């Protein structure tokens, strides 16, 4: 049985003059991928060294400059992976590796051992400061927990000095996390971090990193931002620390919390690609980076080819990407519903290549992340005329006039209802051509002849072996006249449209060349019936004649 009385709100500081809601983001934060550590520790089957290497290379290719590679003191595999990166010289000069360790001496010692010969590394030490863990896990007072942090900071510093004796060229950067910061009294978190800084004595030129985790997300993003703003504004020597944020997604708001933390003054964000991580995951760097991108901010990560990096992430985590995952899911740029399709089609027609992106229902240009417009609109039973028109235009170059779109809509709808899912482009085109195109089986036109006499055109045409003749102010009206003479029925052309159609033709020597054909559409009124005819032919007149004949016989 559900019982909300069982739960209570995590206390967060009362800010009387909070600033973060007034701020805007203007640049990307310092990104830190923790896929190889936090992401990895959440997997039922942790990554092998080879899988870690595959992901490492991918992260480098995407532009990450700090990568938490693991917990080298935790297992031989983690240790060996660290050694492999160093010994095989796989760490580019502009990339810094980061490693996690508890505030325990033997683990810190082993961590430095794993890093022998590294050019530069972040030693990330943590201990929890949260109320629940102080009371129930560590059974320690606030002062005792602070002492653990101080002791950890001292060991980190001492072992760095020892390492400098054998490897004077290694540069060490110190990072401390008050684990479960978001479930810690914020003034106490400041006190602990201040004590750690007293040990490390960082300066603005040689900063330490203070990483503030929402280890378990337990407040709303605005209250987490309050915690961060309180922390930053109460830290004495803030200019000597980089403020880093590490959120988890228990309430589904890890990205929002990180984004608001940046408004509150944070410099650096830790997270994973697509949000793999403990429980509901770590903060998804892809989502946050793309959020910035969609507001015109350079994310300083290359996320343009999800088709390359998503499979790597899926392979090492054995987790499939949700089709509606923000920015990169399979269907996130696809519209099935009629009014969305209509709006997208109209906006895309108006979108100028160099103008700011201004397309309804598409927050970014799908091409930026390697998506074709072809996949944007898929026709099913929820689609309207615009969906079919878009597909036939994108895939087959047909610019259907609105009256053809309207005429074809029920046919496409019928097909979608019969098939019960998405109608393939091919099926849609077949339905269209079956409905409208004139084929040689229907009618054969052997030749036609046009003569102009002043304003009047005379048309002579052989249809299925019979000669038709008529006159009018143009080819269409001459043809309508010929029809009237033959059948006694009058026909009016309500509308007419034509356009060139470029198709690729294969020449006998195998080379492909462009071939222009003519597409014609006619909209006719015969007695009380309205019909549509469409045709493709070598020249405009033939297309017009054939379209009209098709319309007449529809
Ligand atoms: C929020 C996070 O993501 S934190 C990172 C979590 N990641 C991992 O734990 C993965 C790697 N960890 C491991 O492989 C193992 O935990 C090891 C090898 C590091 C340590 O293993 P063990 O020594 O067997 O201890 P175990 O994991 O059970 O840790 C519990 C002990 O460490 C202490 N401890 C836990 N965290 C810390 C810390 N940050 N600093 C100091 N002590 C700590 C606990 O109080 C407990 O002590 P006790 O044995 O005296 O009761
Ligand atoms: C070790 C820390 C940074 C962590 O992963 C967490 O608190 O979530
Ligand atoms: Mg974490």
From TrEMBL:
Enzymatic reactions: 3-methyl-2-oxobutanoate + acetyl-CoA + H2O = (2S)-2-isopropylmalate + CoA + H(+)
Domain of life: Bacteria
InterPro entries: 2-isopropylmalate_synth_dimer (IPR013709), AIPM/Hcit_synth_CS (IPR002034), Aldolase_TIM (IPR013785), IPM_Synthase (IPR005668), LeuA-like_post-cat (IPR054692), LeuA_allosteric_dom_sf (IPR036230), LeuA_N_DRE-TIM (IPR039371), PYR_CT (IPR000891)
Binding site for Mg(2+): 38, 246, 248, 282
UniProt keyword annotation of tRNA processing present: no
Ranges where the record places region Regulatory domain: 439-554
EC number of the protein: 2.3.3.13
Keywords: Amino-acid biosynthesis, Branched-chain amino acid biosynthesis, Cytoplasm, Leucine biosynthesis, Magnesium, Metal-binding, Transferase
PROSITE patterns recorded: AIPM_HOMOCIT_SYNTH_1 (PS00815), AIPM_HOMOCIT_SYNTH_2 (PS00816), PYR_CT (PS50991)
Entries under Gene3D superfamilies matching the protein: 3.30.160.270, Aldolase class I
Localization per record: Cytoplasm
Pfam family, one: LeuA_dimer
Residue ranges annotated for the Pyruvate carboxyltransferase domain, each copy included: 29-307
Keyword Transferase: yes
CDD domains: DRE_TIM_LeuA (cd07942)
Pathway the protein takes part in: Amino-acid biosynthesis; L-leucine biosynthesis; L-leucine from 3-methyl-2-oxobutanoate: step 1/4
EC category name: transferase
Co-factor(s): Mg(2+)
Main location per the UniProt record: cytoplasm
Sequence similarity: Belongs to the alpha-IPM synthase/homocitrate synthase family. LeuA type 2 subfamily.
Subunit structure: Homodimer.
Entry-linked NCBIfam families: PRK03739.1 (NF002991)
Function statement: Catalyzes the condensation of the acetyl group of acetyl-CoA with 3-methyl-2-oxobutanoate (2-ketoisovalerate) to form 3-carboxy-3-hydroxy-4-methylpentanoate (2-isopropylmalate).
The name this protein goes by in its record: 2-isopropylmalate synthase
Name of the gene encoding the protein in the UniProt record: leuA-2
